[in-house]
Write a structure and sequence with these properties.
Elements lengths: L9 H28 L13 E3 L5 H10 L1 H4 L3 E9 L8 E9 L6 E9 L11 E12 L3 E12 L7 E2 L14
Amino acid sequence: MFICNLKLTHKLVFKILFVFIFICVLFVAGISIYKVFHYEGINDTIPSPKITNISSDNYTNILKSVHDNIGEYIGQKISFTGYVYRVYDFSETQFVLARNMIVSSDNQSVVVGFLCNYKDASNFSDNTWVNITGKITKGDYHGDIPVIEITEIKACAKPADEYVYPPDDTFIPTSALF
């Protein structure tokens, strides 16, 4: 018969505890490293089923973010108000849904907006205020730009807050807004 007499001393308990903690730390570190290198992340490019309403307050922040990161916003549905603005080289189906952005303290402004595509765009004359709903796509107008493919459009009154202001520095561009 085999008899084992194990005497537990402070040194032996300390060694066993140290080895146990070391193995636990290695296990946690291994899981962390695995997650870092095999992280699939959140797929922000999947279009959200909801429609995001763009207001005068967030208009230029969203405009800037979408222009800077077109790929992240493709397929997103948005709704906003602006006026019809055209330039000479647009096709019959194109216009910019524009707002005037104040750029100086003496109220000088520039036209900013999204290029839109709508089959019956010619039914809306320049400077007509409209509310649109559409989907962001990638288009080409002197380079890659976001283009709104309009699904709904209706004429509306000029809003009380018709002017927008430059993007602020606190805005964090992310498709999580949508």
